Amino acid sequence: MQRSEAFDILRRIRDEFSAAQFAVTDLLRRPPCDLQLLKAKEELGLTTGRFQRCAANLEITYIIRLFCEFEAVLLDYWEHGLGRPTRPKARVLMERIAAGRGMAPDHLTKAHDVRAYRNEIVHEGSRTSRLSFRECSTHLGRFASWLPTQW
Q1: Which of 120, 113, 76, 71 is nearest to 94 (CA)?
Q2: Would residue 149 count as lying in a domain?
Q3: Is residue 150 in a domain?
């Protein structure tokens, strides 16, 4: 894999998040007078409340997805770039890669903040937004920038 491929993976998730956010926001802003749209929503059992919940959870949903893809990139580097057959936990994986690449401590710390936030969402059911998608994307991108150009 090349580092540029890793960035493309993360960029595509950002782009999908933007598209989903636009679509849900647009749908919620439309006046309920489009009969075809109303009929389609009704047939699927989609209420305004469901779309509002979707909008409320959209960012954290994409943060989880972003971190999953980031972790997959790191595991690919771990296996193919470093020849390591193990599958360490994300924290250990990040620590070892950062140490091996001589990463700036701040970049590791910020990426750990994203990992901890993801854990709060997934394991503790947190719905309190303490990092934005943009912040998460930036922090994980900075970490990824320390990976070699090809592995």
Answers
A1: 71
A2: no
A3: no
